Amino acid sequence: MDPLSKKVVQEDVVQYKLFLIQPDGSDLQTNKQRLTNLIDEILARVAPLLIHYIWQNQPFNLKYQPEQGSVPAHIGGSTQFGDNVEDEWFIVYLLKRITEAFPELAARVEDNDGEFILIEAADYLPKWLNPETSENRVILHRGELHILPCPSRSSAVGLPKDLVPSVPQALALLSSHTQACLASPKIRSALGKRLEGYPEKITAGLHHAHCFLPAGIATVLAQRPDLVAPAVSAFYLRDPVDLQACRSFKTFPPDTRVLTSVTFTRCLYAQLQQQQFTPDRRSGYTLPARSHPQYRAYELGMKLAHGFEILCSKSRPPSSEPDAPVSCNPQWKGFLESLRKNDYFRGELEGSACYRELMTSAENFFRQSFFSTHSSSGRSPGEEVLRLLQSCPPVNVEELKRQESQLPPEDSDSWLDITAQDLERMLQERSREGLGVCSQNPSSSKHTRVKGAEETRKETEEAKEEEETGYSLVAVTQGMKNFLNAMSSHEGAELPWAHSNEPFSLDPDSMAKALDRLLGSKDEDLDSDDLDDDDDDDDDDNNDEEEEEEEGEEEEKVDGASGPQGEKGAETLDGLRRYMDQMDQELMGTNVGQSFTQKNCDPAGLANGSPHPPVSEGLLREGEEEAEEEIQPLDVDLNLVTNLLESLSSQAGLAGPASNLLQSLGVHLPPNTGPS
Asked: How far apart are CA 365 and CA 363, in angstroms?
């Protein structure tokens, strides 16, 4: 498909479509009626999950979509999830539940990133599957993830990877070869891990906080808790024009403030709490001193009141005609019966206070979902707030103040603060998953389960002790040597765990001839980078004599074979070595020379228990005779470890070149807890 002709999905918007696996081939009107009935059945089935859910921007919705081009008629919708990505994954969970309950349906879901479901399983995808070849191939069916395969040697089932299947082709292949299209266990496990915790995760993602709000807002939120989301968004995205309506507060005056409990999602609470805002003096919203025990409740209530006032200032007053009761709608009876089948009322007696509260929530959801599905007209959040204020009886402020003492305790917001240890633990868990450690250690996959604070603390201490005792400085030097000595491919340096499935082959003779043609092959064009001093790479002084003999033999061979050119090259090599030795002699007494640690071959020094004496003892000796001695080789390993540890210490626990280098080599050092 041409990328220019492909429909672009807006940012922070998720689109979902539900298709019939096997259309019955009837006329368009019959097919439309069947899909419309499925919408009502689906909403009734998932209503217990949606009634109390607080969406960030837009709710889950389904509408009939007529046939357009190669896309057959279907039911679908789109939801703008904004900053709360959990709304997007909750919709994926809903689609899995829907396709499991209605096996005749298959679902597709995508956002501006394309098939975002595959991102969670990126480590397990087949090589041929990428954003260009995944279009119309990723489908949810019968509660499982399916990926349409491409033909291979083991199976001829599938579609070529360079072919973008149409929706009818994809549905036909899925219907005829359902088992062959089923995604691999690892891919399905990765998706299941991302959706782990639903539907209990819905309640765990809520936050209850105390707020001083005008009595009108407290009454509105008692009936429609989900209206807190548009109010927070209105305050969060405010502009100077919006704040003009907050100078007088005609709808929600501050003199009727009462203490009430408000239910937020964690995302909404974080947006409201982290905003720094000072109200206009003309608004009447004054805050107590920061030391006041209820300062946070006053501040949160002030911000939320500004959001509701902004919403109402942008809306028209509602009509005086009351809405028709939901019982007049013919679909209400079936919807209510479905709620009872799914134990929505939790065994409450009909007529009790809890039963009436649940019934009110169900009626509000029915108005929002079913009325908006079958009609294009819908109220804005501000209009809904004004309608509730108009339809509610007069607010009894004194009664609300008497209820302040009966409020449930608010939740702790300690989850807003993440310590450095928590961040390090989360990063390590993600890195282990990427390296496949979790598959080797089954117990590591249990880290997502909720644990007690005491158990978590013990595990952290044990892991820290194990980490401190498990590392070795030898591993640092050995890992660096292995990395430098490794043969890299044409793609560049490879990580220790990286491998190439198709090794790169190179003909050295052809490469040498090509370089000769480009650069020329004259022996006199020698450069200092081409002349390596064998003595600089010595790690053991006992091999000096052998190397001198080998060098002598090589020089004799060069003299005998090369003639004048060989003598000229040997003279150049000897001159360069003398030049380098003279430089080393001059640098011995400078700070550059003293910054390196040298190997000590003096038996007396070893007898003193100091295998690596200070540089001053190795360089500054009495008399002129020591200055003429041969320069001792550097202790490469000790210098390497010393410099790396100094670099790590200067990073103060933050990311830096030393930690990134060691991390890429698979070497993990414990944090620096000592004074030096």
From this structure: 5
Helices and strands in the chain, H and E counts? 29, 8
Largest CA distance in the chain: 114
Give the pLDDT score at 552: 53
Cβ contacts of 328 within 8 Å, gap of 6 or more = none
Residues 6+ apart with CB under 8 A from 74: 17, 18, 19, 20, 35, 65
pLDDT category of residue 366 using cuts at 50, 70 and 90: confident
Return the sign of the alpha-carbon dihedral for residues 631, 632, 637, 641: negative
Q: How many angstroms separate the CA atoms of 286 and 392, rounded?
A: 28
Interval 138-188: pLDDT, tens: 999 999 999 999 998 888 899 998 899 999 999 999 999 999 999 999 999
Sheet strand arrangement including 105-110: 63-65, 74-80, 13-20, 105-110, 138-141, 144-147
pLDDT at 443 over 60: no
Per the rule left: phi > 0, alpha: psi between -120 and 50, beta: everything else, 666 is left
Residue 78 φ/ψ, nearest 5 degrees: -145, 150
Distance CA 516, CA 526 (A): 14
**pTM of the predicted model as reported, rounded to 2 decimal places:** 0.66
65 sits in which H/E element: strand 63-65
Sign of the four-CA dihedral 455, 456, 458, 463:
positive
C-alpha pair distances (Å), 17 with each of 144, 214, 494: 16, 42, 42
- Token output for 185: 């266990």
- Please name the amino acid found at residue 674: G
User: What are 48's two structure tokens?
Assistant: 């217990």
